[in-house]
Amino acid sequence: MTEWTPTTCMRCAVGCGHLQQGYTNHYGLDTVRGDASHPVNRGLACQRGIDETANPDGKWLTRPLIREEGTLVPTSWETAIGTVVSCVEDALAESSDGVAVLGSGQQTNEAAYALGKLARGGFGTRYYDANTTLCMASAVTAYYQAFGSDAPPPTYEDIPDARTHVVWGANPAVAHPVMYRWIADSASDDDGELIVVDPVESETVDDADLHAQVDPGTDLAFARAVLAQIVADDAVDREFVAEATTGFEATVDSLPAVEEATETAGVPVETVERVADAMTDSTLVYWGMGVNQSVQGTATSRALIDLCLATGNVRPGSGPFSLTGQANSMGTRVCSSKGTWPGQREFTDPEQRRTVADAWDVPRDRLPDDPGPGPVGIVDAVADGPPEVCWTVATNPVAGMPDAS
Ligand code: SF4
């Protein structure tokens, strides 16, 4: 066997640290296990992560392939790299937007940073994004609107300190199993509580102290009902709201009557009262694709953030905590130079642009003026121009885009 190699499990958004040991006499992995020194999983790893990492569905790609007469055939690295360089140079000769680049939440921070540096500082293209702003577009937009930057304020370290854990439109018991251990451990404390908001009786519901079984498509109505109840209960953290928010009264004025909204959501008023009351404790609100991937996804994500802001739950041990689908969606969004420059530097700020260009040692005017379209707009542009070359990294837009057929 080869030496143990530390790496990251890419099978779900937890991104556990793994140790891998390869075969010495042929390609592939002999043993995969959790890394005890990793802060997220502390040696744990789920069976799916182990199995799918060691034995992925499909063949290992061990050589570059090039299409010849309609068929992909193995080629040398020299030929492959030469072909890529030549295509990219031809496309960039026309315009810096001649190349589109699509990254992925399967990349490490370092890989995402390097790809962004190449796309923005090397090519200078506007047509650059990752699939992470596709599945998470609602949460991304909501964070920008609420906080001016794209990232959930809490970290895993906040989970043990929270008392109320509200899981909304997600099933972390199955989809994020190692992270769910953190949540379940904290919620099982004497003063802990697990509330699940979901039309589905999921595996996470099996452990819940309260299941708010809203009707499908009514998450926004339920969230607004809870905020209306918090206002009615005079449970708003007025000091925090005055200090850290704007527009709160306008938000309150826009709220529906509790009874009306609960009727829309298909739950009894008592359920709303219970959730509103629980949120007066330190609360983490986790939400997943059940919220994000909806025509009301951004509004519902905003409503969940509003719940946290109204109750002062943007402090240690609390906060809005969207759950991604891939191991490093968040790292990609923070490091990749898409909506902001690395380190959440504002994209259009001249000083930040100067800092980035100087650090990369590239002409400042090579950086595109605006972040460009998202993944769907990029794929549309690849069809219609100007990009002539599309470089994808660990993503499959042909399968993943809406209306892919
Ligand atoms: S919880 Fe997720 S990241 Fe961790 S081992 Fe399982 S699949 Fe991999």
From TrEMBL:
GO terms for molecular function: 4 iron, 4 sulfur cluster binding; metal ion binding; oxidoreductase activity. InterPro entries: Mopterin_OxRdtase, Mopterin_OxRdtase_4Fe-4S_dom, Prok_molybdopt-oxidoreductase. Pfam families: Molybdop_Fe4S4 (PF04879), Molybdopterin (PF00384). One of its GO terms (cellular component) is membrane. Keywords: 4Fe-4S, Iron, Iron-sulfur, Metal-binding, Oxidoreductase. Residues 2-56 form the 4Fe-4S Mo/W bis-MGD-type domain. The keyword Oxidoreductase applies. This is Molybdopterin oxidoreductase. It comes from Halorubrum lipolyticum DSM 21995. The lineage of its organism: Archaea, Methanobacteriati, Methanobacteriota, Stenosarchaea group, Halobacteria.
